[in-house]
Amino acid sequence: IVASMGASAVLLFAVPHGPLSQPWPVIGGHIVSAIVGVTCAKLIANEVLAASLAVGAAIGVMYYLRCIHPPGGATALSAVIGGEAVHELGYQYVFTPILLNVLVILLVAIIFNYAFVWRRYPAFLHRYYAPPAPSSHEAQIPHIAHEDFVYALSEIDSFIDVDEHDLLRIYDLATRKSKKHDSLDRQIVVGGFYSNGASGEDWSIRQIVEESRNESENKDVLIFKVVAGHDSRSSGHCSRADFLRWASHQVVRDEESWKNYSGQE
Asked: Distance between CA atoms of 139 and 212, rounded to whole angstroms?
């Protein structure tokens, strides 16, 4: 058992989709670090100097081989300060215990994470499906292609623990919220009914009774009354921006129930 596998376990089971947790960084990071560590232990008599160079060189090699895995630094360090038992192994340390530990922890991570669709490991088993392109009548938000994200990441002269698929998902979630916000803003009309989309006792429907449009956000005010749900039969006012943050969608009265303005339940 190698102590650095404890740090690898944190990455594989807590952040299975992170770039530092993928198979090549795990395998390559530990193996090259072990080789570097054993080499430094054999060639440099001073243990302090050998340990320092082992960790520094391991980081450099991992960086250029694109297999950065932070626990690899501890693997290189262990090869130097692990004591006589480790020193006697020589390069056998690379295969047992390092490679053996790596294969076992990878196998367990694949099996354990596979039980949960949203965290399947490795990351390519958890595919990201881009949403359909917006129609012409929707608010147009600049499209950023997969290749654009890859290029942007390559231009940053530093390692960032996020891949292009994560960025695409973040961008999609953010732009969908923006489009929803813009669409609802155009629907805000005096006399309209709006729901906060909450459940249980927090559910509420407000009707706009008056508005005061102004370029200043603080003076762009909506006056409303609560017609159903929490605080029913009360009234109040707030800025248009605050109302949009509260509102989920516009609704209409249909006999004894409320329905989404689009006609959906």
From this structure: 25
Residues 230 and 203 sit within 8 Å (Cβ to Cβ): yes
Which two structure tokens, joined as six digits, stand for 105? 């922890």
Q: What is the mean pLDDT of residues 219-228?
A: 88
Considering only CA atoms, which of 57, 74, 82 is closest in space to residue 6?
74
pLDDT band at 139 (very low <50, low <70, confident <90, very high): very low
Helix spans in 65-196 (H): 71-81, 84-89, 92-93, 100-114, 146-155, 164-187
Q: Where does residue 230 fall: left (phi above 0), alpha (psi -120 to 50 degrees), or beta otherwise? A: beta
Residues 6+ apart with CB under 8 A from 54: 33, 36, 37, 40, 41, 76, 77, 79, 80
Q: How confident is the model at residue 142 (pLDDT cuts 50, 70, 90)?
A: low
How far is the CA of 60 from the CAs of 19, 39, 210, in angstroms?
17, 15, 65
Place of tokens 């938000």: 141
pLDDT at 107 over 90: yes
| Distance (Å, whole) CA 42 – CA 65 | 23
- Mean model confidence pLDDT for the chain: 83
pLDDT at res. 45: 94
Q: What is the DSSP string of 84-111?
A: HHHHHHTTHHIIIIIIHHHHHHHHHHHH
Chain-centroid distance, C-alpha 9: 19
Alpha-carbon span 62 to 27, nearest angstrom: 11
Q: How far apart are CA 180 and CA 26, in angstroms?
A: 40
pLDDT digits (tens, 9 = 90+) for 152-184: 777 777 667 776 677 776 776 666 555 555 556
